[in-house]
Amino acid sequence: MTEFSGKNILVLGGSRGIGAAIVRRFAAAGGQVAFTYAGSADAAQALATDANARAIQTDSADRDALIATVAAQGALDVLVINAGALVMGDPLTLEPDAIDRMIAVNVNAPYHAAVEAARRMSDNGRIIVIGSVNGDRMPFAGAAAYALTKSAMQGMVRGLARDFGHRGITVNSVQPGPTDTEMNPADGPNAAVMHGFMAIKRHAHASEVAELTAFIAGPHGAMITGSLQTIDGAFGA
Ligand code: NDP
């Protein structure tokens, strides 16, 4: 596959899970792919070698480091903002610092990364954030702050699509439902409850989310912007 041949692609949070599947998808299609990670150095190095991609350690919670990393990639064709944290529990007892860190990674970082990328992005570039169906629907207790972060992404992509549209740059959110990763294993204790909300009662594979991301990033995605692309087995329907 040469669909992304010569394209300069950055995936924020690419060492594991959905992000790693996205790195593999773009690299397999000829893209020059760099990806960031925070803690999983071994997984990042293994993926970099295997997929012929470049691993960069940058914690998305460190705003200045994140902006510097995005700027250092030059004129990007595609930015995928996948890095995300999930903090769940009783809001009355959750640590405020843990909530603030989640908001820093899931909300502040995507905004600053998208804006920094747009400063030097090629015309007709693509900015894609991995949101969540929980931006639309939160049927469980204990995840209000996580849902808050994913709803925030919906407003961000709508607004930035307006800001960058005159350059042909598209800005979209891919909203997965339950997807089999370390964050949300298909055999985890809450899987059956989640499947109960779905028409197709299984976790998605990370590769399925990567495929939708690649479509939006590709030539057929030129008129898709300011949109929420949900891939959730009807969890949110
Ligand atoms: P995982 O926890 O399996 O992987 C998260 C990835 O993001 C890792 O590569 C991790 O790197 C990276 N990451 C996390 N925090 C940071 C940070 N501060 N700086 C840089 N990189 C970071 O999660 P998933 O693959 O499941 O989730 C990916 C995205 O998809 C998230 O935004 C999540 O909210 C969203 N999502 C997931 C769903 C699911 O069911 N799995 C459903 C809906 C949305 P490292 O380990 O190196 O820190």
TrEMBL record:
Domain of life assignment: Bacteria
CDD domains per the UniProt record, alphabetical: SDR_c
Signal peptide: none
UniProt-listed NCBIfam families: PRK12742.1
Protein name (record): SDR family oxidoreductase
Lineage: Bacteria, Pseudomonadati, Pseudomonadota, Alphaproteobacteria, Rhodospirillales
Family: Belongs to the short-chain dehydrogenases/reductases (SDR) family.
InterPro entries: NAD(P)-bd_dom_sf (IPR036291), SDR (IPR050259), SDR_fam (IPR002347)
